[in-house]
Amino acid sequence: MAQTYLLFLLPDLLINSFLHPIRVYLRAQNVTHPVTLASLAGTLLHVAFNLALVERGLGGVAAAAAASSFSILCLLVLYLWISGVHLATWTAPSRECLTCWEPLIRLAAPSCVSVCLEWWWYEIMILLCGLLVDPTASVAAMGILIQTTSLIYVFPSSLGLAVSTRVGNELGANRGRRARMSAVVAVFFAAVMGFSAVVFATAMRRRWGRMFTGDEGILRLTGAALPILGLCELGNCPQTVGCGVVRGTARPNVAANVNLGAFYLVGMPVAVGLAFWLEVGFCGLWLGLLSAQVCCAGLMLYMIGTTDWEYQACRAQLLTALDEGSDGHKQPLIATLDNNNYS
Question: Cβ–Cβ contacts within 10 Å for residue 28, how many?
Fold first, then answer.
């Protein structure tokens, strides 16, 4: 069954390889409303696609997900074509497109590693659940809890994407002080999200699991771990937004190193030690995640707090520099565009 689902979901992987760059491209220009409206339309179509294809089983459900993603992609491409928002940055394809990939890869690879390191940790937790005393209930409860944390993650993730764009734009405009203010405000609201998650998880610990199952064993594990999940979000929300700030300063390697150290050098040993050596069991795995999130949030906030924003603004000018003519000197891309506008 899982194989069938994954096979029918493969087109969605290809579609998202185009969809996500377009979203980032628009977001970098502060064009957000079309993305929101396209996503809303895709969500509504997703319901219709599921109703039409659910009778075909898991393959139909996966195909519905791919179809909804494709509809969002088509809507965004249509918006680009009609609005002409791409004209200011679009150039005809040429051999030059095959050059200067190294700086992009140096930024993209650590960003990818940073996200993968965090999410792989959750997958490892599921595998470790299979080694506990009651593996069936543990794996099921872990699935519910990971689905819950994914739901909560949407909010700090969205804020992280927004602050990444904001910080990047401010630094690119050589306004380090405003970039710092954006980072501070975002981290503050991330902390508010974290406290809200704690309240939600604690208040719903006896009722949340019943939305998924009536099995008492699964409900017992879910209820015991939900307050710990809430505490994890108290660290996860600031660190997720912190990652966005760091990405905005073009330092994704910092986020990758922090995630590697926090999740695998701190969280993993604590989780394994508590769950198996001290026989805490299922909650021990989540206490390991809690230690990782606290460590990750602390390191990320330290990196943001010690950032020299004026230096980062100057660095942004160098990162966006272009070779100008025969003199061999480099000028900021922004200055070049301004000169062209006024010439």
Answer: 14
Is residue 312 classed as helix, strand or coil in its secondary structure?
helix
Residues facing 330 on adjacent strands: 323
Can you state the angle between helices 309-319 and 176-203, rounded to 10 degrees?
Answer: 110
Listing DSSP states for 76-122 in one string gives HHHHHHHH-TTTTT-----GGGGS-HHHHHHHHHHHHHHHHHHHHHH
Contact at 8 Å (CB) between 224 and 282? Answer: yes
Measure the CA–CA gap between 258 and 235, rounded to whole angstroms: 13
Instruction: Determine contact, residues 289/125, Cβ cutoff 8 Å.
Output: yes
pLDDT tens sequence across 267-326: 999 999 999 999 898 999 999 999 999 999 999 999 999 999 999 999 888 877 654 444
What pLDDT is stored for residue 329 in this prediction?
53
**CA separation for the pair 68, 43 (Å, rounded):** 7
What is the residue type of 340?
N
